[in-house]
What does this fold into?
Amino acid sequence: MEREASELFEEFKELTASEFFRRNKQMLGFSGKIRSLTMVFHELITNSLDAAEEAGIQPEISIDLKRVDKDHYILKHMDNGPGIPEDFITKVYCTMFAGSKFRNIQSRGQQGLGCSGCVLLSQMTTGKPTRVISGYKKGEKLQGVEMTFKMDVKTNKGLILDRKPAEVTSTGVAIELQFKDVSYSLSEQGAFEYIRRSMIANPHAKITFRDPTGHKYIFERATDVIPPLPKEVLPHPRGVTADDLIFMAKHTDKRRFRSLLTSSLSRMSTKRVNEIQETTKIDLNKRPKDMKWEEAERIVELFAQMDFMAPPTSGLIPIGKVQIEKGIREILNPEFVATTTRKPKTYRGGVSFVIEAGISYGGESGRVVGEQKRAEIMRFANRVPLSFDQGSCAITEALKSIDWKRYGIRDLENAPITVFVNIVSTNVPYLSTGKQSVAPEEEILHEVRQATMKIARSLQKYINAKRAAKDEEMRSKIFETYVPVIMREAALLAGTDVPEYDQILAKVTRRPKILDEIDIDLSELADDDIVGEKDDE
Amino acid sequence: MTNRKELALNRRDIAVNKLQSLGEKIIEDVNLRNVPSIQVPSRGTSNIVYDDKKRYYVLGDRYGQRSLGNVKQIKKIGQMVYMANFCKSLVQTGKTATLREMYYVSEGWDIDFGDQQESNIVGEDLEVTLGISREDLGLMPEEDGASVYGDITVKDDDVEINALKMGKSGYTISPTIDEVELVDHNVQRVIAVETMGMFHRMVQEKAYNKFDTLIVGLKGQAARATRRFLKRVNEELGLPVYICNDGDPWGFHIAMVIISGSAKLAHVNHELATPDAKFLGVTASDIINYDLPTDPLKDIDVLRLKELYKDPRYKDDFWKVEIKKMLKIGKKAEQQSFSKYGLEYVVDTYLPEKLDAM
It folds into this structure.
């Protein structure tokens, strides 16, 4: 029996973003019990850090995770950021793809999915509403509001159940969510490790965390320096696609395409625009909306062949080697740490990035597996810990390609070290929407290797010096044990008193000096003396 | 002839002085604020050379330095000094100890040895460094020396012993042979034989009378005390020494170690080698001339003969000819194979003919 098209299309529906992600929650990273909870922590913590930094506040976060039942938790998350004005609360927490980050700017989150994703997961697994208390300034006045709401996935909007004024003493947001089908774990992929790693990359933040057993962890800030806010930078010609050009052309207020190019792209001078016009024979004086797709394609193709200055790097704010060291020292309490921040480089010809790396040895470096210490790789992108998909990540690949033996580390797997790598970019090339692994761009691999090898050399020096000191110690001990015995026995043999031998002992316990002195002694001997001694034999 | 006891005392004084000098050298270095070191002659194969004039192996002039300032050498110095003190007290009290006993004594020291092998090596270090044999340091081998039968009188402490009156097995050479005085004798020569079987055969056939000889039963490779005894009777009493062994490379070499010393003991060969001792037989020529019952040479025998052929100690024409001849006939024969012609044959016929030819 045939059905008419109109009949078939009766069932055709438009999906809202919320509805889409309700059906595909793994695309938000919510797959697996441990991973789901880690992702919730990730979204809430990065949001709090971003908000506080934008407001110029030293971030302070307090997290309380209570276990209700197996795989069932209540999470309270509180920050000291600027707070959210009443009217925006449901937009932030209930509308997918809403946010302030759709710009070419270095930031922790980018898609505006995070917070609403957490609310969605809570609602999907428990059916419970979310409660938010927000303290924010309106003019000079501190305002407080408490709101209980649900997400209406059909409309991608919030459904307010309760709303009342709240007593607040400072700005900030407190959110309370319930989750089922999630699991708190101390493993490398677990929520606790996520917090710990966040603290290394964000030494200016303070986090207090009460775990399900009631134990309270206080991660103190290791520095008072709030990182400067990254600036928005214009996209570099090498980093844009034909689609980007058409999109710009549609939304610009410029009258001519050439002025659109010079004002929307970095490193695009009038001279360059003239070159493009000459080569492509496209009239760049026409109105932007008259730009055809084929023409945009030709221009982008030409971009790839032209020599541009590297993109401006003012938009990149690395953590900085000093701050990384502070973070590592605070969290890992290592015996030795070396850090480095490389100069900005570009990948795919037009996207700038900076690689930072740190290596720590001893203390709590490395991870304990059974009775052994194994190496620990901590990957970060724009200060955000990457907890999953380690195997496919460019950072892992680059680290594994290093010949560690050259640096006194027999194999990377079994060394008691922690390697920290952070990639800073306005556009980190993630391998998937989960944003947990970096694509193996050649330039990125190269930079990670260079950065790590540099600090590995410092570590090698330290390990060698330590080994030498230990050998020296053992040597000294041998001398201190044997010399007095030999002096006593030699005196007994010669039938004399034990001589004063402190000077000799001091001499022999320091090897390099001794060798020198022996050389001098030999050269000072007259030739006759040497011959005479030989004759005695 | 000097009184042996006085000589022995003299040897003891020399030993004590040399031991003492080791301690004095260290103390003197300390007083001069130099890092003490001891020079130990090298015993590596490259430092063992055959001395054509002396006709035995001697140590070359290379030596290793043991410095108190070297973390690997300081322990060895400690062990040497400790051992030197132990030897000094042995020599002073006239006692001796075996290497094994010394190893056990060392367990109570502040610097001990990992095993007896290690203490044996340090013992050798002390021998080469001081240039005296370990017997003079009071360190005795475990094993007794050979048996001696014949008219010789020796004095061990205050007891006089005549080797004709000690029963059929004769006088057993003591490890402390250097303390033994050779008092008197009534013989013309010494014949040393490899096996005790041959020794008893010669005693029964009264070879000591027939040839006016001492009979020495070596019991295989000659012990240090035996070699010392043979050297002394050769040099102190002026008696020619003849050696009669099995007719194979092993018998050859037992004789050669008595004559020219061993490479391993190059540092004390001047006390042990008897370069004038003669090899009587059994030679390859004997095997042919006396038509002796034989065994074919085994691969290892051939290999050993070829080694001996290249050895500087076998450079005489006599040895070159005999080794080549044995390789050519591919056969070897034991001493006792003369019994083919009757038990008395070896003493009645073979030995007289051989001694005449010497």
Summary: Chain A touches chain B through 32 residues (CB under 8 Å). The first strand of chain A starts at residue 60 and ends at 69. Residues 442-494 of chain A form the longest helix (53 residues).
